[in-house]
Amino acid sequence: MASGDPNVFLFVPNIIGYVRVLLSAMFVLLLPRSPLGAALCYVLSAAMDAVDGMAARWLNQGSRLGAMLDMLTDRCSLLCLQLNLALLYPAAAPLLQLSVCLDVASHWLHMHTAVLEGAESHKNVGQEGNRLLQLYYGNKALLFTLCAANEGFFCCLYLEYFYGGSWALIAMRVALLPLAVLKAVLNGLQLIQAAKRLAAIDVRERKKC
Protein backbone atom coordinates (compact mmCIF):
# COMPACT_ATOMS: atom_id res chain seq x y z
CA MET A 1 0.00 0.00 0.00
CA ALA A 2 1.54 3.27 -1.16
CA SER A 3 2.00 6.14 1.29
CA GLY A 4 -1.10 8.31 1.35
CA ASP A 5 -3.41 5.59 0.03
CA PRO A 6 -6.49 4.94 2.18
CA ASN A 7 -6.19 2.00 4.56
CA VAL A 8 -9.27 -0.02 3.60
CA PHE A 9 -8.76 -2.29 6.61
CA LEU A 10 -9.47 0.69 8.88
CA PHE A 11 -12.62 1.90 7.15
CA VAL A 12 -15.34 2.36 9.77
CA PRO A 13 -17.74 -0.16 8.13
CA ASN A 14 -14.97 -2.75 8.07
CA ILE A 15 -14.15 -2.17 11.75
CA ILE A 16 -17.83 -2.77 12.47
CA GLY A 17 -17.46 -5.93 10.40
CA TYR A 18 -14.61 -7.15 12.61
CA VAL A 19 -16.85 -6.65 15.67
CA ARG A 20 -19.50 -8.73 13.89
CA VAL A 21 -16.95 -11.51 13.40
CA LEU A 22 -16.12 -11.48 17.13
CA LEU A 23 -19.82 -11.56 18.02
CA SER A 24 -20.35 -14.47 15.65
CA ALA A 25 -17.44 -16.35 17.20
CA MET A 26 -18.92 -15.78 20.67
CA PHE A 27 -22.28 -16.96 19.35
CA VAL A 28 -20.76 -20.24 18.17
CA LEU A 29 -18.97 -20.80 21.49
CA LEU A 30 -22.17 -20.12 23.46
CA LEU A 31 -24.47 -22.25 21.26
CA PRO A 32 -24.21 -25.53 23.23
CA ARG A 33 -24.69 -24.15 26.75
CA SER A 34 -26.02 -20.58 26.84
CA PRO A 35 -29.04 -20.12 24.55
CA LEU A 36 -29.89 -16.57 25.62
CA GLY A 37 -26.29 -15.39 25.36
CA ALA A 38 -25.88 -17.08 21.98
CA ALA A 39 -29.11 -15.56 20.65
CA LEU A 40 -28.11 -12.11 21.89
CA CYS A 41 -24.72 -12.29 20.12
CA TYR A 42 -26.42 -13.50 16.94
CA VAL A 43 -29.02 -10.73 16.97
CA LEU A 44 -26.44 -8.03 17.72
CA SER A 45 -24.24 -9.22 14.86
CA ALA A 46 -27.21 -9.24 12.48
CA ALA A 47 -28.28 -5.74 13.59
CA MET A 48 -24.76 -4.41 13.03
CA ASP A 49 -24.98 -5.65 9.45
CA ALA A 50 -27.47 -2.84 8.80
CA VAL A 51 -25.31 -0.34 10.69
CA ASP A 52 -22.15 -0.98 8.67
CA GLY A 53 -24.12 -0.59 5.45
CA MET A 54 -25.36 2.83 6.55
CA ALA A 55 -21.85 3.80 7.65
CA ALA A 56 -20.46 2.78 4.26
CA ARG A 57 -22.96 5.04 2.48
CA TRP A 58 -22.64 8.01 4.85
CA LEU A 59 -18.83 7.96 4.93
CA ASN A 60 -18.35 6.85 1.31
CA GLN A 61 -16.34 3.90 2.60
CA GLY A 62 -17.89 1.06 0.67
CA SER A 63 -15.33 -1.58 -0.30
CA ARG A 64 -15.09 -5.02 -1.84
CA LEU A 65 -13.37 -6.18 1.35
CA GLY A 66 -16.33 -4.99 3.42
CA ALA A 67 -18.87 -6.61 1.07
CA MET A 68 -17.03 -9.92 1.21
CA LEU A 69 -16.62 -9.69 4.99
CA ASP A 70 -20.36 -9.10 5.39
CA MET A 71 -21.25 -11.96 3.08
CA LEU A 72 -18.93 -14.44 4.81
CA THR A 73 -20.05 -13.41 8.30
CA ASP A 74 -23.72 -13.78 7.36
CA ARG A 75 -23.27 -17.12 5.65
CA CYS A 76 -21.00 -18.66 8.30
CA SER A 77 -23.19 -17.50 11.21
CA LEU A 78 -26.38 -18.88 9.68
CA LEU A 79 -24.57 -22.08 8.67
CA CYS A 80 -23.41 -22.66 12.26
CA LEU A 81 -26.90 -22.01 13.60
CA GLN A 82 -28.54 -24.41 11.14
CA LEU A 83 -25.97 -27.15 11.72
CA ASN A 84 -26.56 -26.82 15.46
CA LEU A 85 -30.30 -27.09 14.81
CA ALA A 86 -29.64 -30.29 12.86
CA LEU A 87 -28.11 -31.72 16.04
CA LEU A 88 -31.00 -30.54 18.20
CA TYR A 89 -33.70 -31.69 15.75
CA PRO A 90 -32.33 -34.86 14.04
CA ALA A 91 -35.59 -35.51 12.16
CA ALA A 92 -35.28 -32.12 10.47
CA ALA A 93 -31.56 -32.53 9.72
CA PRO A 94 -31.98 -33.30 5.97
CA LEU A 95 -34.07 -30.17 5.39
CA LEU A 96 -31.69 -28.03 7.43
CA GLN A 97 -28.69 -29.38 5.51
CA LEU A 98 -30.41 -28.67 2.19
CA SER A 99 -31.18 -25.17 3.44
CA VAL A 100 -27.51 -24.63 4.30
CA CYS A 101 -26.39 -25.86 0.87
CA LEU A 102 -28.89 -23.66 -0.97
CA ASP A 103 -27.99 -20.59 1.07
CA VAL A 104 -24.22 -20.96 0.65
CA ALA A 105 -24.29 -22.04 -3.01
CA SER A 106 -26.71 -19.35 -4.17
CA HIS A 107 -24.89 -16.49 -2.46
CA TRP A 108 -21.42 -17.68 -3.46
CA LEU A 109 -22.33 -18.15 -7.14
CA HIS A 110 -24.24 -14.87 -7.21
CA MET A 111 -21.34 -12.90 -5.72
CA HIS A 112 -18.73 -14.63 -7.90
CA THR A 113 -20.75 -13.85 -11.03
CA ALA A 114 -21.24 -10.23 -9.97
CA VAL A 115 -17.46 -9.86 -9.59
CA LEU A 116 -16.84 -11.32 -13.06
CA GLU A 117 -19.42 -8.92 -14.50
CA GLY A 118 -17.60 -6.00 -12.91
CA ALA A 119 -20.60 -4.98 -10.80
CA GLU A 120 -19.93 -2.51 -8.00
CA SER A 121 -22.08 -4.57 -5.62
CA HIS A 122 -23.34 -8.14 -5.46
CA LYS A 123 -26.77 -6.58 -4.89
CA ASN A 124 -26.84 -5.49 -8.53
CA VAL A 125 -28.75 -8.16 -10.48
CA GLY A 126 -28.78 -6.29 -13.81
CA GLN A 127 -31.61 -5.11 -16.00
CA GLU A 128 -32.18 -8.58 -17.43
CA GLY A 129 -32.36 -10.20 -14.00
CA ASN A 130 -35.33 -11.88 -12.38
CA ARG A 131 -37.96 -9.31 -11.37
CA LEU A 132 -38.38 -10.77 -7.91
CA LEU A 133 -34.64 -10.60 -7.31
CA GLN A 134 -34.55 -7.01 -8.60
CA LEU A 135 -37.29 -6.12 -6.14
CA TYR A 136 -35.54 -8.01 -3.34
CA TYR A 137 -32.15 -6.35 -3.81
CA GLY A 138 -33.55 -3.01 -4.93
CA ASN A 139 -35.77 -2.44 -1.90
CA LYS A 140 -33.65 -2.14 1.25
CA ALA A 141 -36.68 -2.41 3.55
CA LEU A 142 -37.77 -5.66 1.89
CA LEU A 143 -34.22 -7.02 1.91
CA PHE A 144 -33.82 -6.28 5.62
CA THR A 145 -37.27 -7.68 6.48
CA LEU A 146 -36.78 -11.00 4.71
CA CYS A 147 -33.24 -11.51 6.01
CA ALA A 148 -34.32 -10.65 9.57
CA ALA A 149 -37.38 -12.88 9.32
CA ASN A 150 -35.35 -15.81 7.98
CA GLU A 151 -32.75 -15.57 10.73
CA GLY A 152 -35.44 -14.89 13.33
CA PHE A 153 -37.23 -18.09 12.32
CA PHE A 154 -34.13 -20.21 12.93
CA CYS A 155 -33.38 -18.37 16.17
CA CYS A 156 -36.89 -19.18 17.39
CA LEU A 157 -36.36 -22.84 16.57
CA TYR A 158 -33.12 -22.79 18.53
CA LEU A 159 -34.63 -21.10 21.59
CA GLU A 160 -37.70 -23.34 21.48
CA TYR A 161 -35.50 -26.35 22.10
CA PHE A 162 -34.57 -24.89 25.49
CA TYR A 163 -37.81 -23.01 26.25
CA GLY A 164 -40.35 -25.22 24.48
CA GLY A 165 -43.28 -24.04 26.56
CA SER A 166 -43.02 -20.43 25.39
CA TRP A 167 -46.13 -19.55 23.39
CA ALA A 168 -44.47 -16.32 22.31
CA LEU A 169 -41.64 -18.22 20.63
CA ILE A 170 -44.04 -20.63 18.97
CA ALA A 171 -46.26 -17.82 17.69
CA MET A 172 -43.25 -15.91 16.39
CA ARG A 173 -41.87 -18.98 14.63
CA VAL A 174 -45.20 -19.68 12.94
CA ALA A 175 -45.53 -16.04 11.86
CA LEU A 176 -42.00 -15.97 10.43
CA LEU A 177 -42.23 -19.31 8.60
CA PRO A 178 -43.83 -17.94 5.36
CA LEU A 179 -41.15 -15.26 5.10
CA ALA A 180 -38.40 -17.83 5.70
CA VAL A 181 -39.89 -19.99 2.93
CA LEU A 182 -39.99 -16.96 0.62
CA LYS A 183 -36.32 -16.30 1.40
CA ALA A 184 -35.49 -19.90 0.45
CA VAL A 185 -37.40 -19.49 -2.83
CA LEU A 186 -35.41 -16.32 -3.55
CA ASN A 187 -32.19 -18.21 -2.82
CA GLY A 188 -33.22 -20.79 -5.40
CA LEU A 189 -34.02 -18.10 -7.97
CA GLN A 190 -30.71 -16.43 -7.18
CA LEU A 191 -28.83 -19.67 -7.81
CA ILE A 192 -30.57 -20.24 -11.16
CA GLN A 193 -30.14 -16.63 -12.29
CA ALA A 194 -26.45 -16.55 -11.31
CA ALA A 195 -25.85 -19.79 -13.22
CA LYS A 196 -27.48 -18.28 -16.34
CA ARG A 197 -25.39 -15.11 -16.04
CA LEU A 198 -22.22 -17.14 -15.58
CA ALA A 199 -23.05 -19.24 -18.64
CA ALA A 200 -23.61 -16.01 -20.61
CA ILE A 201 -20.11 -14.87 -19.61
CA ASP A 202 -18.76 -18.18 -20.94
CA VAL A 203 -20.57 -17.63 -24.25
CA ARG A 204 -19.18 -14.09 -24.62
CA GLU A 205 -15.65 -15.23 -23.86
CA ARG A 206 -15.85 -18.15 -26.31
CA LYS A 207 -16.98 -15.77 -29.06
CA LYS A 208 -13.77 -13.77 -28.57
CA CYS A 209 -11.61 -16.82 -29.23
Descriptive overview:
- α1 (12-30) runs antiparallel to α2 (35-59) and α3 (64-88) packs antiparallel against α4.
- The protein has a single domain, classed as Four Helix Bundle (Hemerythrin (Met), subunit A) (Up-down Bundle).
- The chain contains 7 helices and no strands.
- It has helices at residues 12-30, 35-59, 64-88, 93-117, 131-138, 140-162, 167-208.
- The two termini are 36 Å apart.
- With 209 residues, the protein is mainly alpha-helical.
- It is globular, with a radius of gyration of 18 Å.
Topology:
Blueprint: H1 12-30, H2 35-59, H3 64-88, H4 93-117, H5 131-138, H6 140-162, H7 167-208
Q: Give the radius of gyration.
A: 18 Å
Q: Return residue spans where pLDDT drops below 50 for at least 5 consecutive residues.
A: none
Quickly name the level 1 CATH class.
Mainly Alpha
Q: How many structural units, i.e. domains?
A: 1
- The number of helical elements comes to 7
Percent helix, as a range, is: over 70%
Beginning-to-end CA distance, first to last residue: 36 Å
What is the CATH topology classification name?
Four Helix Bundle (Hemerythrin (Met), subunit A)
Task: Tell me the overall shape.
Answer: globular
Structural class: mainly alpha
Largest sheet: none
Taken in chain order, the helices and strands follow as: HHHHHHH
The fraction of residues in strands falls at: under 5%
Give the second-level CATH assignment, the architecture: Up-down Bundle
Average per-residue pLDDT, rounded, comes to 92
Work out the number of β strands.
Answer: 0
